[in-house]
Design brief:
- The chain has about 425 residues and is an alpha/beta fold.
- The protein has a 6-stranded mixed β-sheet. Strands 2-1-4-5 form a 4-stranded antiparallel β-sheet, with helices on one face.
- The chain binds adenosine-5'-triphosphate (ATP) and magnesium ion (MG).
Length: about 425
């Protein structure tokens, strides 16, 4: 601007064009980058799943199917990544084109100015030289413009990179923005008595908002009672257990514990009062001892052994050469289903909860072990409120009440 105002204006003409272009292309680069990242995630999922379930893949002889599936997904990544690279390349070349275009424009326009001033000077030699636009000034201006232009070109490149990074990071930002469970707020007490009531509870899973899973479930369990829950597969039994543990909240209605809405309790406290033996037991990849102690971190060896004995797990644990130090393998795959179940029961025994939830806790046991574990559970359930989900009648003989659930409703009480 110092050298020539007119030329600066000519130069700045391209700025709006570049800005519009940068915004449009920036968005496009961001979108493509996010899609690339999503496709990478999808293809990693294939690898993870295939390796985790390698036995199933082999049993169904689907190695080829899986490798084709993976090849397809990596092709999809490459396609998107190339698309992104092309967009960035196009963006960068456009910016460079604009810059050189404007420099050429400036040289051309500057040359006409210089010519005009030479003509002026020829006509009227009295004009002072520094008021004229000379060739020297033009070269000076063009050089400055090139420096500035090169830096702007650098900014454009940077901008494209930033847009790419924003697109790639979007999923992470989504996770950061996710509301955490209100784990540390709410009511606490020393302990709870264990009166549970479901009052007209309706529930749909957030991932499937149009399918009602529970449709007005009401029941009560006084402290110390055992409530059995039976019903066909998919009727919502495990869902009731999840709601009691407050993994989800009812869409309508409420769940009370000792007469207080369970939402008012501090989650940490509430879950500390409950133990669940889930339908599908997953262990951690450490030792048997660590897995049982999960019910009560810091438990002594004696307590752990006592819990294992009550869960009828002593026999098989002592059968292993390493005993309690036996490694269970990733997710517990080196143990049988029934053995895992007994470890989960030992965990619950050790936790000594006020409310016990058993989701088909003995379904993987043979009838002899089941009888033994059932006896242990019967003892464990004394004095606690228990919710027992079961298919077999033998498990629920001793229940105070049997609720029959069908398609999200209690049909028999
Ligand atoms: N995480 C989830 N997201 C969406 N829908 C789910 C989810 N978990 C379960 N469902 C659906 O909710 C319904 C009830 O499932 P639930 O696991 O409570 O059944 P269940 O009575 O425990 O069955 P089973 O006897 O087979 O264990 C099913 O139709 C199921 O498809
Ligand atoms: Mg279930």
């Amino acid at each position: 601007a110092y050298t020539s105002l007119e030329l600066t204006l000519v130069m700045l003409c391209i700025v709006p064009l570049v800005v519009v272009f940068a915004v449009v292309f920036g968005r496009m680069i961001r979108r493509i980058s996010k899609e690339t990242q999503d496709r990478i995630a999808a293809s990693n999922t294939i690898v993870e799943e295939t390796l985790a379930a390698i036995a199933i893949v082999k049993a169904f002889a689907n190695e080829k199917f899986e490798s084709i599936r993976y090849a397809k997904s990596t092709d999809a990544i490459i396609e998107k990544a190339l698309q992104g690279a092309k967009a960035r390349g196009f963006f960068a070349s456009f910016i460079i084109f604009c810059l050189f275009g404007s420099i050429v424009g400036v040289i051309w326009y500057g040359a006409t100015l210089v010519n005009k001033d030479i003509a002026l000077a020829a006509a009227d030699p009295t004009i002072p030289r520094d008021q004229l636009f000379t060739l020297g000034k033009l070269i000076q201006f063009v050089l400055y413009s090139v420096f500035v232009g090169a830096s702007i070109g650098g900014i454009a490149e940077m901008y494209a990179h930033i847009q790419k990074a924003i697109g790639a990071g979007q999923r992470i930002l989504e996770i950061i923005d996710e509301q955490p469970e209100p784990y540390h707020q709410g009511l606490t007490a020393d302990t709870i008595a264990g009166d549970i009531a479901f009052e007209q509870v309706h529930f749909t899973y957030p991932s499937r908002p149009d399918i009602p899973v529970l449709r007005g479930v009401s029941f009560e369990a006084q402290r110390g009672e055992t409530i059995a829950l039976v019903g066909p597969s998919g009727s919502g039994k495990s869902t009731i257990a999840s709601l009691l543990l407050r993994f989800y909240e009812p869409t309508e209605g409420r769940i009370t514990i000792d007469g207080t809405d369970s939402r008012e309790f501090k989650l940490e406290f509430l879950r500390g009062q409950m133990a669940i033996v889930p339908q599908e037991v997953i262990l951690f990849g450490g030792t048997i001892r660590e897995n049982i102690a999960y019910g009560k971190p810091g438990a002594s060896d004696k307590e752990i052994e006592e819990a294992a004995r009550k869960a009828n797990a002593l026999e098989f644990i002592e059968g292993f050469p390493d005993g309690y130090d036996t490694i269970v393998g990733e997710r517990g795959i080196q143990l049988s289903g029934g053995q895992r179940q007994r470890i989960a029961i030992a965990r619950a025994v050790l936790k000594d909860p006020r409310i016990l939830i058993l989701d088909e806790a003995t379904s993987s046991l043979d009838s002899e072990s089941e009888r033994l574990v059932q006896e242990a559970l019967d003892k464990l359930m004394v004095g606690r409120t228990s919710l027992v989900i079961a298919h077999r009648l033998s498990t629920i003989r001793k229940a105070d009440r049997i609720l029959v659930l069908d398609r999200g409703r209690i049909v028999e009480n």
